[in-house]
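Protocol step 4 of 6: record predicted structures for both targets in the notebook before any analysis. Target 1:
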Amino acid sequence: MNGSASDSASLLQSKGVLNAGKDDELDITGYRRDGLKTFLFYVLAVLSLGILLLVVYWKPELECQLKCKECALYNADVILVKDKFDQQIGVVDVKLITTTEEKYDVSVSYQEADGAGDPQTDIGDRDTLISSSRVDGKMRCFDYQHYRYIWDTQRRAFKELEDLSTNTTNKTILDSSQGLTQDQRNSRLIVYGLNAIDIEVKSYWKLLIEEVLTPFYIFQIASVVLWLFDEYYYYAGCILVVSGGSIALSLYETKKQRITLRNMMATDDTNILVADGADGFIEIPERELVPGDVIAVPANGCVMTCDAVLITGTCIVNESMLTGESVPVTKTPLTHQEDGELYSPEIHKRHTLFSGTHVVQTRYYGNSKVLAVVVRTGYCTAKGELVCAILYPKPLDFKFYRDSVKFILFLAVMASLGMVYSLIMYIRNGAPVDQMIKRLLDIVTIIVPPALPAAMTVGTVYAQSRLKKEGIFCISPPRINFCGRINAFCFDKTGTLTEDGLDMWGVVPVADKHFHEVQHDPSKLDRGALLICLASCHSLTIINGELSGDPLDLIMFNAIKWHLEEPGQDTSKYDTIMPTVVRPYSRDTFLGEEHPFEVGIIRQFTFSSAVQRMSVITRTIGQDHMEVYCKGAPEKIASLCLQETLPHNFNHILHKYTVQGFRVIALAYRKLDAKITWHQVQRIARDKMECDLEFLGLLVMQNQLKPQTTPVIHTLQKANIRTVMITGDMIQTAVSVARNCGMVRPNDKVIIVNGHPPDKENPAARIEWELAEAAEDPELVDEEESSANDEQSERGELSQVGEMHRGNHDDSGPTGPSGFLCFPVDFNKGYQSIKMLEYEPRTHLAVTGRAFSVVTNHFPELLPKVCILGTVFARMAPDQKCALIENLQEYGYIVGMCGDGANDCEALKAAHAGISLSEAEASVAAPFTSRVNNIECVVTAMREGRCALVTSFGCFKYMALYSFIQFISVLILYTFQTNLSDLEFLYVDLIITTTIAVLLGNTGAYEKLVRNKPPDSLVKMSNILSILMQVAITAAFQLGILFYLMEQPFYKNDLEPLKETDTWESTIIFLSSSFMYIAVAISFSKGPPFRRPIYTNVPFLIAIIILYSLSAFMLLAPQEPIEHFMDMKPLHTIDFTFRLTIFCISSAFLVVSGLMEWLFVDSGLMKCLYRALERKQKSRYKVIQDTIVAEEWPPVGQTLLASANSDEFAVNMNNSEH
């Protein structure tokens, strides 16, 4: 009974959650249309003159509540969808899809709420789940943001439609090589939809409707209608023209951006061969591909329109659209050794052809086709996810925008008070009702200016334009303001801090378990296993006659001066196989000897970041056996080698290279049994080949710093901005680069965090804190050697390292020609530190990706400390980079990220400001893209961000003061039942205010990045006091001028005005207030330390001079035609002394306004007072920093163990450490 009751309760639920725990988590509510409520809704819409329709357009959830009844999700025909930020709300209709199949096979299943499949459900039986979503032969579903969600009656919830990329074994994919029948394809096409990424480009008419129906323009339309009723024809007409031009420009830019995005993502409508069940192949349009289709990849290449898994043959693919790297990647077929694994596009990406990537070449044997199984189509592909990230970006949460809404509400309250005052005055004076209504409504348009939202974006628009001139392109302008508040910046290493290319430094051979002297020219190596490893262990290929591939592989292969040939016609000597052949440039190669020295590459295991290595199986002409050659991360290769082949000082020698920033690759090989045939090699598992290897030596390459890196890091540190390195390289290399570029200063202490997950021998996860060698650590040279020969060998090899570094040293400064900080190396005396300014030594953590994972999963309470104290994060996977940035954001940092696009896309999207140094299409995922391939763009973006933020504050304050100045003027005039004329309003609003608002933001960014950061809140005490004091002195000066006017004889003897605007009050208030608009603009045009001085903004300065002169001319030298045109009183008949006095008082306002702004915002005394009164709560990261200092953390020399119940205890590994 209890189970039945629980099932009934879940079935009757009207609310649910989709994608729980993810960034795209959605809350859904079910509604069913109600005829009576719908009828009443439209009656109310007619009675409200359409206002109700406008309200529900802005608030879609209100439409559901007014027209529908909330009901159980299974019975809903309308779904209300909200994101977890409550910023994107949509109403979608539930569809009933008719399918021709009775049920689907394993290609369709449903996820649990946490995104994982039900562990109790056998993957082979998941085809029954699709039938559970069917009602009377129909499937209930809805589409939201290009994703489809289907009702599952077994789990009584809507779930995202799955494809072959979820909960599908590799065996299932390999067994589907026969493809689908036409009936199956048609049925799936109904469920999954077309395989297309069609980006809608709306018509101008539709864009116009959407633009005009925003609250901003509706308010403007209502204001224009009011002004027309009030006979302000000129003013209303000009505002209408300006707004129309603004709308037209906005529509043009919006449509242009959509067309650009559509063209960027568009593919040609072409046909492709697909397997048609057991009947061979047929040709169908690529738009009709569905998950489960088996496609034949064209031999001459193509652009993929779906995500597909290779099951036969290999492909050479350019994935620059996704990774930002235009280096060709070899894709190999899925193998039966991986049958038991669940397919994952991320884990098995070496077998996956992703949508949007370019297949350059295919490789196959004989007449066989290169086949791939379609796993994802349309917007569910990797390319589709990228497009969705652009179309529906993660909402930005910036305090400035929240505060601006609060301030507008404050202005609305002030408008209400003004309306009450005016109403009392008009009733007391017996004014007509229609005049009262018009004046009361007019107050709202004055205190809440329609141009306020546009004025707030002026600084951002100018900053975007200046960034473009610097070669930095921004696709998300609101992110520019975030750049102004960044206090932590993360950098990728390779290609970002260091040069893209590597330089060959040398090869360190190993023989008889000893390292021999380094060979700087690998082509002089003897023909043996080490040379063959360099020649064959790579993924190079020939494309259009040129050798292409990974830059490291190219440098390695070119250094040995060998020749590579792709498969040719003569294949008999390789057991009818068509391998890639490598041979040296030598006489026996090209003079036609009978048995030339050639090596055939029989099979290739491509590089995988998961296993940190690659390997090949080769056969050399004249030999009766095959060989395995492997290269990769030294620590990984060492673990695969026979221990008796490793030199005893392996770790010591490796450390000496990596600590100096060299890129070190380990090389190893293994002879295979002569009985092993080619067919066995093609099917054998990778891990069975990559074991029991014989260590061959080290490949050492230089990865030099870019010359701009060190100065930029120094600039950021001077500005008190935390710098962090996130790389996939070795931790010793990363620490060395961090020291060389100044992230870690010479006297700083670096603690390496080593993490070990639970295993069979150690069931408890553990963390070790190891102190990295300091610059002068004698252990670098004083390690004991077991024999004199070893010592001699090591010195001979390492002395050349010292010579290389000494050769790079010059007297030009802290950096040598290579861009490295120069540490002259003498291994007999230890490292020598360079002289730098005095500073407080810091402690840095260097964390490996494995340690980061262990801390995250087993020591979550340590994660904040590790993230806060960590400076170097090495061996980090793409998802770990993203997780680190999200953690830093959670702890209160405003985080920037700079990467070259390769494996950095997720992190670039997650950061508040992501800057891509790649011009590839992957850069569309980053808010900023720099054409200049170095990190100087970081400082530029931050300077412009600070300038834009300060400009936004200035514009906002100016628009607020403009409203208050006019508000005070109007209230004074309403007291006397008068008002400004049509053209006087036009002069103030259009000529003065609009000109100033547009040009105010044109001031450029200050050339230096200072330690102070601009404020992020409008409601800070300094801003509030500044605005209130400016309002107070405005009211005081206007009232003072009014009282001075009322004392004049001509005022007392004046006749009753013929028109409402024909009064001395309106004339004098208009002229005096026109100076005030200009004065506050000057007061709010702040210069250093975030913007250049005001005089550098020449257009603004000229406009100020012209406007001030024009107002002075109308006051001091009035002309009768102008007075008549402006509906002013005959000021030219009044004594000059009176006019000069008004001018002097108005000019005095400029001085007092500037003085007040300096006193309440910029003076040191008031800043101290604000800090004492506000008692701002510390950011979370500062609290964590204080905790670290108080606890004297981390515990160097100790090992932390995680018990089964996650309680930790420490084991002291070094009594000398605290």
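Target 2:
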Amino acid sequence: MDSSVEDSPYIRYFDPLPSAGAPTSQTKDEPTAATSAGSSDLDLGPEFSVYAKDTETKPSKNVRLVEAWVKDLGATAPTEPTGWEEGSKATAKGKSKARREEEEELNATINERIPAGRVFDHRDVMTTHANPAFHQPRRAPKDAISSYFALSKLEDDPDKWSGLPEVPSSAEVTGEKPDNGVPRNIIEEPWESKEAYLSSHYDLIREDTVFPLRVAVHQLRDAPTSKEDYFSGSVGVYDRVRIIGLTCNFHGGIAVRVAFSLARAGKRVHWEQSKRLIPGSMVALTPVNDMFQTKCVIATIAARPLDGLKQNPPEVDLYFARSEELEIDPAEEWVMVEERSSYFEASRHVMTALQKLSREGFPLQEHLVDIETEIQPPEYLKNNPFVNLSKAIDPTEEKSYENVDILNDWPVRAKTALDKSQVIALRAILSKRLAIIQGPPGTGKTHVSVVALRVMLDNWRPGDPPIIVSCQTNHALDQLLRHVAAFEENFVRLGGRSKDEDVVKRRTLYQLRQSGSVRPPKSGLFNTSRARMAVLSKEIEELLFPLALGSQALIDADALLKLKVLTAEQHQSLVMGDQDWVDTNRPQQDTAYVAAWLGPQLQIVPKNLQADEMYAFEEADLEFEQLQEIEAEATAQDDEDNEALKGQYIAIADNFTGKRLSRISNAQIETLLQTSDLYSIPAKHRGSVYWYMQRQVKQTILRSLRDQAKKFGAHSVQRRIGRFECDLPILRDQKLIGLTTTGLSKYRPLISALNPKIVLIEEAAEAIEAPVAVACVPSLQHLILVGDHQQLRPNCSVTALEGQPFNLNVSLFERMVLNNVGFSMLKRQRRMIPEIRRLLRPIYGESIVDHPLVKNSVHRPPVPGMGGVNSYFFTHEWPESRDENMSSCNHMEAEMIVSFYDYLILNGMKGNQITIITFYNGQRKALLRRLHRHPNLQGRVFKVVTVDSYQGEENEIILLSLVRSNDNYSIGFLNVDNRICVALSRARRGFYLFGNAELLCSAHSTWKEVIRIMRGKKGERAPDPIKRLDFHLPLTCDNHNRKTYIEEPEDFLKINGGCDVDCEGELPCGHPCELKCHPFEHSQVTCTKPCMRPMHCGHKCVAECCEPCRCAECEEENSNDALESMEPLLQALPAGRPPHSGSTPLGGTTALGGMTDVSEHDRQLYAEPHKTFDKWNAPHAQASREPFEALTTLERTSSTSYPTLASPPTTLKPSSISETMTQGGSEAPRKHHDMDGMFQEEDESDNTDDTIVERLRDNPTPRKVNTTEMNLIDFD
């Protein structure tokens, strides 16, 4: 054997021997690669063979290389397990005879030197089912978490990517560009090495995070006085930033609280719906007199409690990136800038995990880095391929499937509820170490994942590590875990705040800790670190006492001496006072000595900072639920409160200072301080001298505080390690752990310590590559990726990084497919009716077929009121516009969609069955405003979402607002095939598009094909005689089968959900129905005819038919009786007093029974109390009143201003359609060009109503329709 082999730092695991005692020609004493290192008895078990790596020959593929951590074969495996690197596939078939003989000889030698009976843990090499220890894997050592963090810091070279700090430096933010440039991302060929792969993705993510803030800092440096409007819509600039306190937060270190101004924004903020200053986001600060010319300090938002933000000025907590950059001077004024398009907290955990991955083994490297296309089974399955498949097989099957060799004898003819493509996908999931499953819309990829998880959990044995399941979003994770909960209760959810209160919420790690059902052992590290942090908190509080707010005192003389600001002689001069005067009342307190010395030069510092003006509110950034998703996932500690920090809060301020003369310099002050007698300093200069000494005190305190903060931060990390160690026993006993892809990085130390073998990632095509790659912990043997790269791609903060050569928006899932790494595709869809599914042909071709279910009209009934037209493209040429956030919107299109939505509701569709989706957030807001103002839709809950937030969702009917309509052939977001795919595939039985078809057809090839399908080629027979695209919307009356063609929103005013034929039906009250044809019941119509029914008193009812009956004659008699009975009480009231508290004279005064100064309103109350009856209290009006009551309740509990109900709307007399359309005055319907202006005027006051009102419950029964409302719809 070549001598160079003896120096190899690697050992390689190869083919298993026939038996432990197989004869061999190798002599026992012949040296090998292992023995040359001094090894003697490494226990690998008889099932494995080892041969040395030939350093002069390139290693053959499909072999495992394990770094030699030990100097001899008898040493114990390291605490931190080493992974292995795999090359590409090669078999023994092509080996030379000499090479095979060499391997056999070496294998025999090693087996002779290895004692029988010991098996390596599956993380170090591989595990065999033949050994009973397979189902009892080695437990993670007690210090596994500590070892993880220790190894993460092995390399701390800031010049290398793996040693960079988590938070970027100020040089990175203020510099022009990264020192080494931005690397390219290789997506269609193998990577050169693991190092190149990891470092490139690290640099790309870091640049995606830092670049937006860098641009914002440069812009502010070039235009230091500009308002926010000067910058892009996502830049936030806050001035008058002052430090007002510190919090010794046990969770994250020393946090500094600052107050700031919104003057540059020029608007107040609805913080509940704003993306400004989200916890975990990164900000840059600079002194107000510097403006990033020489100084920049980087910080992250620690917390933003709403109570603090709603103050004036608002307050927020910061973590300074480095303890040496910590600041505490309350007198220093700063400017703070943020860039909201990127979110640092989500990226920092990924970057840290990539650094850790570079120092450990990388399972699946042969596929993810080297692009080996042929995929082998996972190691645990190679040794024992027998699996219980009974949970995936129809229970009526007579044959048993409890012990199936899935590698060699997969049951081809077994009866199952899965279709053929799903069975193929299930087999791939269970039998391939890297399984990639593409699931086009509606093909059931989540269902296949759930079936696979059920099979794997059914084969789980006590002692096995938990299966890790991850999704891109919290919503998808909750849905998946809810499916799992149906057959397995032993699971836990990590991270974020689950919205599934019934099932998943009870299985969060936080709830398991609180339940007491599992009591983790007390971690010494956890308790020790907390105790030390408590001590440090007290020391910091004492250190900051001279700056403590509310101390009502100056910095005392002893403190000045202790901090070496004064000499002993100077201190003595303060205590003794002016020797030229004799004062028998010398002060006894040290602070009073300083005050006496200052005299009139003492100046009180105001405690209240300058408040902002009362600006108008800005438009909300996000839906409330979206904002919670972001904050909870990145910052919440398993449902612990993420709004306020935990720990000692210390408010600081200068309290007092000295009056400073502007003409005196620091050098002159230092000259004055050279005297040993402070009373010799002229009185007029003493204020400036004290101000200088105060600064010296702050600098001295700051130096000590920075040291303390560094210690506190280190103990905070130790506390986190201790918390993980406490959680480890809880998680180890679970069968399945669910978390998001962000959580995979955030909780990677905990996951790695559990030694998982299997990781399944749903929505894998929506995640950028790095968070998925870091899921490859050293113990991983089986990675499953489920998604669809032809739907939504990952999102990037920097658009320039999405294209070539950076390709940051290409997921690992898509890259594997592009490189022909084996994947399975689901092909039978169960969501869309064929009429809608055919629109996906330009994207998927003929790959997708329909399940019989979607062809059955019982399961997919036609849309009511549409005459069988279940898909349609309403094309128009109404021009688009931009809102104040520069988001595209189209007001006329929005009105058309809202009117059509009302039409569908009138025809019996429920609000929760209809979703409106759009590509633009500006259009989403415009739609919601109009929906909430529509008189027939009051109190309903509306689903109006953007395309990007609706991935994975579906509904019965989808209304798609395409918005774009211009002469520039610009279609923006509509130009992305992935978004088009999502938009076209959400509807189950009804899909209606609204947009400029001519523009789309000219601007994009995919839209051109979609429009061709809906329009039909010339001479080509369409699948339905009714066209699916035109400048009008075809409606069909279900009562008379009459067609109505709608071209403008006003056209909907001509019908009441049916056609233009008079109803002529009879209402339940007996009066004739005066509406046009309508599809709803007459019981829902409000009759405004006079009632005239005889009452029990014998008189006729004088009320309208829709009101409770009342008798005018009886009411008059009762009124007179009531007035006579109240006369003595009214006469007893003193003159000039209002009759009841809260009444105010309105206009002039009047007299009633001797009273003076009684308002006319009060007169009516006393004279005719029966006339205060409120029509809105009538039973028929209760349904429409409830939403306003709910809205009023919300208003009382929120600082946000919402519209209130001033008075009931006036009930107009019924009128015919023709009269309604021709009448003038204020009751005539407004023209659309007038509405545009009206909405623009009202946008500012109503811009935050959408999300709150959306949460109002939907009335399960349709509101009774007023005949006038049906004929005259006023959008005001």
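Step 5 preliminary note on target 2. The two ends are 91 Å apart (CA to CA). The longest helix spans residues 683-732.
Proceed to step 6 after PI sign-off.
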